[in-house]
Amino acid sequence: MACSNCSTDTGGTPKGCKNNGTCGTSGCNKLTVFDWLSNMKLPSGQEPFPLVEVGFKNGRKEFFKNPEHIPLHINDAVATEAQSGHDIGIVTLTGELVGIQMRKKKVSIDSPDIKKIYRKASQRDLDVWKESRSKEESIQTKSREIAIRLGLQMKISDVEVQGDGSKAIFYYTAEGRVDFRQLIKEYARLFAIRIEMKQIGLRQEASRLGGIGSCGRELCCSTWLTDFRSVNTSAAKYQQLSLNPQKLAGQCGKLKCCLNYELDAYLDALQDFPETEKKIFTTKGVAICQKIDIFKGVLWYAYEGEWMNWHMLSAQKANELIAMNERKETVSNLEDFAVEVLKEVTVEYGNVVGQDSLNRFDRPAKSRRNKNNRKKSPRNAR
């Protein structure tokens, strides 16, 4: 769901986001909170919450004070305080829900880093803001060319120009430390604005740029995921996935965040399984685990030297045999404890409509032609 500016144009061609991700709808802003308290009045004598949540480019949201008690509503454009000059943002949340969001993000109300709102954005502020935003694409292209010419091992992923056009933030990714002193000098001379370089990780870059994952949905990091937890290859091992970097890596080049989603369920299920490194000693030979199936709760063992013959054991039975080995009890062979493979019953397709055909209501054209021929025949003309 998106705003009207993001819908299709005449002829079905997509318009694209004309607001560049700064409108107030939930489809354009990341994790926009629905203000379900908007229709409720405050109790008598209670003052409204003094802070407001304001959104900026690429879903960046910050909290601002409202010392002048300006009546603000969602989707209002406001001029906010910045390190130098002012910035333009869109109000995304007001009222008591702002306090809940601040507690969720662990931001203190008395924090000295919280800036204030100057005023509602005037038409002149909006014109300067739109003009500044329109320059971002050309600035990003030129900045990449300069970085390549200087031979710097970095990538300019995004550029954000401040609302008053006096400052530009360059977001870049790099594997190591980059000396960009000469780069800043050329940027300042070419663009004639204050320059700020901000390094972000590869996951943050994918979150800002967005895209479609291998599952066919939008990237989790650009839609709802807020914290980026580390993903290890052990998560893929626990889920019995092949360690193929091309399949396990996301668009950021790191392991996919979705590997952590079901990891806890797999770890709980694996508690009922014996360790795959443990061997089962029998009178016939030593059996080594070859494969496990978490969903079916079974393991496959093979004798040393007979690697082609696998014997399927349930997790419970494998634990019992390992416990017998630890008690130094004799285990005859795996064949006595193997689970029989049950044939899966295949359900054939059934016609739920019955024996009727789908074109049973269609009149055969042949009968109409025969009827017309009988009318035109000379025998009937007599």
In brief:
The chain is 27% helix and 18% strand. It has helices at residues 97-104, 123-134, 136-149, 181-191, 202-209, 220-223, 233-238, 245-248, 263-270, 315-326, 365-376, 378-381, and strands at residues 51-55, 61-65, 77-81, 86-93, 115-120, 155-161, 167-173, 194-199, 280-281, 286-293, 298-303, 311-314.
Primary descriptors:
27% helix, single chain, 4 domains, alpha+beta, 4-stranded antiparallel β-sheet, 382 residues, GMP Synthetase, Chain A, domain 3, 5-stranded mixed barrel
Plain-language structure description:
- With 382 residues, the chain is an alpha+beta fold.
- Helix content is 27%, strand content 18%.
- The protein has 12 helices and 12 strands.
- Strands 1-2-5-3-4 form a 5-stranded mixed β-barrel.
- A hairpin with a 4-residue loop joins β9 (280-281) and β10 (286-293).
- α3 runs antiparallel to α4.
- The longest helix has 14 residues, at 136-149.
- It is elongated and about 85 Å long.
